[in-house]
Amino acid sequence: MRILVLGSGAREHAIIAALLAEGGHDITAAPGNAGIKRDVETVRLDIKSPQLVTELATEGGFDLVVIGPEAPLVAGVADALQKAGVPVFGPTQAAARIEGSKSFAKEVMARAGVPTGIDTTATTMDEVRAALDASKPPFVLKADGLAAGKGVIVTADREAAEAHAEAFLPDGPLLIEEYLAGPEVSLFVLTDGESVVPLAPAQDYKRLGDGDAGPNTGGMGAYSPLPWLAERFGSEQAFVDEVVESVAKPTIRAMAEAGTPFAGLLYCGLIVTKSGVKVIEFNARFGDPETQVVLPRIESGLADALLAAANGTLGTAAPLVWRDSAAVTVVLASEGYPAEPVTGRLIAGVDAAAAVDGVQVLHAATGEGEQGLTATGGRVLNVVGTGATLAQARERAYEALGKIELLGGQARTDIAAGA
Length: 419
Ligand code: AMP
Ligand code: GLY
Description:
By secondary structure, this protein is α+β, with helices and mostly antiparallel strands. It folds into four domains: 2-97, 3-Layer(aba) Sandwich (Rossmann fold); 118-177, 2-Layer Sandwich (Dna Ligase, domain 1); 181-322, ATP-grasp fold, B domain (D-amino Acid Aminotransferase, Chain A, domain 1, 2-Layer Sandwich), CATH 3.30.470; 326-406, Glycinamide Ribonucleotide Synthetase, Chain A, domain 4, CATH 3.90.600. It is 34% helix and 28% strand. A five-stranded parallel β-sheet has the order 3-2-1-4-5. Strands 12-15-20-25-22 form a five-stranded antiparallel β-sheet. α7 (102-112) crosses α11 (236-257) and α10 crosses α11 (236-257). The mean pLDDT is 96. Bound molecules: adenosine monophosphate (AMP) and glycine. Adenosine monophosphate is lined by residues 117, 140, 152, 154, 177-180, 184, 206, 269, 280-281. Glycine (GLY) is lined by residues 204, 219, 283, 287-288, 290. Keywords: ATP-binding, Ligase, Nucleotide-binding, Purine biosynthesis. It catalyses: 5-phospho-beta-D-ribosylamine + glycine + ATP = N(1)-(5-phospho-beta-D-ribosyl)glycinamide + ADP + phosphate + H(+).
């Protein structure tokens, strides 16, 4: 299959690596990064432009376009590709609102009867204060629109909660949500708007530091499978089945009924509370860094499943074949991340790291400088270890990470340790 992958992070590198491992595909990435460029052809392109993407896709004769990040979805790139008759994995602009607007997502969940935290919408500081008065700490406040991961605050500090509200209210309404206690799980579901195919659950580490200390980040690591889910639900499959029935299917149905069918990947962000599994967010795309640990566990069928989701034939597509393996990814971030990442520094040791058995080094923000590979952003690399067990995958990931040098680089040392 001739496949165009849009995006430039480790998530897109993971999608490309999985498709390459499957074999038989001709892949181009736009715009990609230095690591992706070592693996496939890359094209410089403003991927938020529906027109430019459609031109590239039609002129290049691609059989499938896979949209990685949310920005092109929200910009209507999938709509333009659909109109031009190019199969696209990723929802329309209207359907992507399930990620782009938290209040829209809440409306869909209410219509679909999907379990989620109770929330209030506030449009003024008076309404925010009243909502905070009515709830008890920790407070959860969410900006309605896309805010590059900075729109959500979870804090016991009333002043910090109000300051967050002051900062984000000018951009639109805020949601004040009930705090949900319990471990988080990300479950990805492929869908063509009707049929759903769940992938394996994964857990993401959002905080910068060991033991979940420090600020929220885009994600500092992840692992899959989640053995503790099997303990709690009897089997991981039982958990997946429950989420498919209580969350994914009703949501997909509600989206279709509203005239905004959702095709692509529905990312269910979940908290396993004492009173059941509840949704804290939906995303309209593969999660980052969870994708880096979910896709290496698929042995075959990925490209066919993505194409079937794009073409509305997922119900009759061949099932994905999974490996009985585990994967752990550790993110290497720049000094100063997430507030003010220092960029431009040289990275050494990537080849030695990638030579460790069962390890893949996926690039998130890298460039090819005169003296070699450099860091160009906050999250720089993902070191992914795979193995027969989580312990082995974890050991391999950390062994490989130890071979990489980046001045001031930050990485957590406890990814998958508790699991
Ligand atoms: P989001 O941007 O919606 O993924 O939220 C960012 C992070 O805030 C999540 O990964 C959770 O750790 C946390 N969070 C969001 N909503 C809640 C909630 N209702 N209760 C507890 N934690 C939450
Ligand atoms: N891992 C969180 C996200 O992709 O939004």
